[in-house]
Amino acid sequence: MSEQPPKQAPLHVGMIMDGNGRWAKARALPRLAGHRAGAETIRRILEACPGLGVHWLTLYAFSTENWRRPDDEVSGLMSLLDQFLRERRKDLDKQRIRLNAIGGLERIPEPARTRLFETMAATRHHDRGVLTLALNYGARSEIVAATRRLAEEVAAGRLRPDEITEERLSGALSTAGMPDPDLIIRTSGEMRLSNFLLWQASYAEFWCTPTLWPDFSCDEFRRAVEEFARRGRRFGGLANV
Ligand code: IPE
Ligand code: IPE
Ligand code: MG
Asked: Is the peptide bond before 111 cis (omega within 30 degrees of 0)?
């Protein structure tokens, strides 16, 4: 993109990529065709990020609740993940984007899991952006795991209860070291978090669109980012007038 990024760009954007199934249904196609089209949207959106001033992009790709879907859809999604990582590797290198992942990665089946770890290792020095895939991710289980880790520290005598602060809890989450999301975009007309980044999204701006994820365009992404730039974020204080 040749246009300049807006002055108040969201440094970190979280995307709840929803509507692949409805997109496929509207075309009388199998749900997996919708997921495939959705993977193509990711390619476009990733390319648009630097021009919009977005350094961190976090994509909700598979939730802890998505295991409730039929086995063939789950295995189709996991093969698509493997294919996505294989096909996008050259883009990550070209754009110097580091791949990161959050969630219960141990449950991601092979070969996607190995490819995921290989791609993260191979891109770890890239410094122009970070793509985080939320896979088998659920914010509640993330918070429970972090709480358990801190409780273990306390039980072992390495941490006092009064040393448990917001910063320490943030540091025990899978997003440790990442800035909180500034903007969360959800496609397909739904207006809920569905267990995505509950802690981290405390002061995120929300932007929802009826567009289904496979139809989400770079133009619409730019509009969301521009609207974000016009919003007044007060963080509980008073507007600067
Ligand atoms: C989002 O699209 C992709 C995942 C949750 C993996 P959906 O598959 O949820 O699409 P709809 O909501 O059924 O249209
Ligand atoms: C949210 O979409 C999860 C992902 C985008 C991975 P869902 O389609 O699973 O959410 P619900 O069930 O409509 O809340
Ligand atoms: Mg959905």
From this structure: yes
Residue 1 is predicted with a pLDDT of 46
Angle formed at CA 103 by CA 156 and CA 114, multiple of 5 degrees: 105
Rg of the chain (C-alpha set): 18
Q: Is the CB of 60 under 6 A from ligand 2?
A: yes
Q: What are phi and psi of 106, to 5 degrees?
A: -65, -20
Residue 135, helix vs strand vs coil: strand
Model confidence band, residue 4 (pLDDT cutoffs 50, 70, 90): confident
Report the alpha-carbon distance of residue 181 to residue 14 in Å, rounded: 6
- The domains found in the chain, sorted by start residue, are 12-230 (3.40.1180.10)
Q: Measured from the CB, is residue 59 less than 6 Å from ligand 2?
A: no
| CB of 195 shorter than 6 A to ligand 2 | no
Among all residues, which ones are annotated catalytic? 18, 66
Q: Is the model's pTM score more than 0.85?
A: yes
Q: Which atom of ligand 2 is nearest to the CA of 18?
A: 5
Percent of the chain with pLDDT over 90: 93
* pLDDT computed for residue 6 by the predictor: 74
In 3D, which of 130, 113, 119 has the Cα closest to residue 59? Answer: 130
Q: What is the pLDDT of residues 7-64, one digit of tens each?
A: 799 999 999 999 999 999 999 999 999 999 999 999 999 999 999 999 999 999 999 9
d(CA 213, CA 216): 5
